[in-house]
Amino acid sequence: MKTFSFYFRILYVAFILAVLWCDSAVADDIRKPVVAGLWYPGNRQQLEQVIEHFTAQAQQTRVNIPADKSLKALILPHAGYVYSGLTAAHSSLVLKGKQYHKVILLGPDHRAGFSNGAISDVKAYQTPFGLVRLHADAARLRLNTALFRSSATSDRSEHSLEVIVPFLQFYLEEFELVPIVLGPSNIDQMETAIDPLLDDDTLLVISSDLSHFLPYSDAVAKDRETIDMILAHKSDNLVKQHDRACGRTPILVLLQLARRHQWDAVLLHYSNSGDTAGGKDRVVGYAAIAFYGKAHVSGLKSVDPHTFTEKQGQDLVKLARRTIMDRLGLKIDSSILLNDLKNPCYQKRCGTFVTLKKDGQLRGCIGNLSPNDSVLECVKQNAVNAAFRDPRFPPLRPDELEKISISVSILTEPQPLEYTQSSELLTRLRAHEDGVIIRKANAGATFLPQVWEQLPRPEKFLTQLCLKAGLPPDAWQNSKLEVWTYQVQYFEEQK
Fold it and tell me: What local confidence, expressed as pLDDT, does residue 340 receive?
């Protein structure tokens, strides 16, 4: 019998040739399959037969599901189906008959080499089963340019997401996808970015294999340790040891979410390539693990911010000023304000901006479009950033503070603006109401609704916004921009 390493070399060479021969994996806003016909059947009928075969085998396994809890997340393997398909098919034990509107799929980067996350800038993923449309949350995450971007290189070469999608299509049928490929990342930041996207209609799926190329008995022992860590939500050794799982970073994000929401983990199946189609001298491990939590997730989705009273808004402005004073080393008495800020409303998740003006002229403006933390924490962070880290201005000096006026903007969740041509875009924008975000590839910028006061004509507004994004001034006329709008609740400092 040929060894697993022999089969792996053949599979790898075929994969590389396919990538080299392929003009592009992304065309006409579709991310086309890269490893179909290599790692899994490229023919719809054959693919259906293979998954049906593995599913029938998996149905012979019984697992104990936590009572009165709903499925929140899965860990599934991403090797060629001949090796890991049986383990991946054990997801049928918990997915068949269920429906989710959105699937957030996290997998590791094997090929491109980047930090943080890559999210395809396409409308749909294609497999032999057809198209899976991307959910609007995919584009919303890309607005957070510090953490996410698109990567054509990843789209042309990465398999960790692609091989999972046909199983999801087979068991769930209709859903929209948020595909995220992760390189080395700050786990706290990733968890904070993904957490607000979770709800009862969302399934989080992690793509990862376990140990690689150990002798069979060594692999089983090591994989069992890794699985026990995952089931117990213990991530310390996973953080330290890179060789336990290729999807280590996505798994760490999941474990942090699982601890926060007290999800229970259930092992559905374990195997390695020595159990399926390879030799036992050098094997790769696979696990299917399900996570269950309370039926209703609360406090995770961003909320409509238009519930803050004028008094609460002014307290946020005071918080911004006192945060800046503290950073400047100036004496403050914040005891009364701290009591006021104990109201639970300040724990809402909303995008926020803090704007500084000096003698009526802009002196700093920094914010976050996505709800990556509580309003309270975002105002504090953005106050410091607007005063000391806006690249357009030098850091604020103590002697300037008396002349500074501060405002705080609380944002609604950005929504995509559909249009077919530039003339339609002009008519759909609402002057003095809409904040506007534009994006093209990795370029992007936003103007708050307050900017309409200086640029009341939509043509001038969009021209200046394009310049801010580093695009040609007429980019809104000559190219299809990605446009989003939002509204704000605006609080200006009262002196």
Answer: 76
Nearest CA to 266 out of 86, 91, 68, 53 is that of: 91
d(CA 411, CA 302): 10
Provide the CATH number for the domain around residue 477: 3.30.1490.150
Give the CA-trace dihedral at 56, 57, 62, 65, to 10 degrees. -60
Is 303 exposed, middle or buried (CB count within 10 Å of its CB: 0-12, 13-18, 19+)?
Answer: middle
Phi-psi region of 68 (alpha: psi -120 to 50; beta: other; left: phi over 0): left
Is 305 domain-assigned?
Answer: no
In a shared domain, residues 8 and 31:
yes
Cβ 372 vs Cβ 378: under 8 Å: yes
C-alpha count within 13 angstroms, C-beta hemisphere, residue 475 = 22
Q: Which residue has the tokens 């409308």?
A: 123
In which residue ranges of the chain is pLDDT below 50?
Answer: 1-8, 10-24, 296-303, 305
DSSP β-bridge partners for residue 134:
177
Q: Which residue has the tokens 């390493």?
A: 5
Q: E strands of 273-346, at which residues?
A: 283-293
| pLDDT at res. 303 | 43
How many helices (H) and strands (E) the chain has is answered by: 18, 21
Q: What percent of the chain has pLDDT over 70?
A: 91
pTM for the model stands at 0.74
Domain that holds residue 340: 310-413
Cα end-to-end distance, the chain, whole Å: 83
- DSSP character at residue 349: B
Based on C-alpha coordinates, what's the Rg of the chain? 25
Strands 482-486 and 435-440: what pairing? antiparallel
Do 213 and 281 share a structural domain? yes
Instruction: Look at the chain and report how many structural domains it folds into.
Output: 3
Q: Please identify, among 393, 413, 433, the residue that sits at the C-terminal boundary of a domain.
A: 413
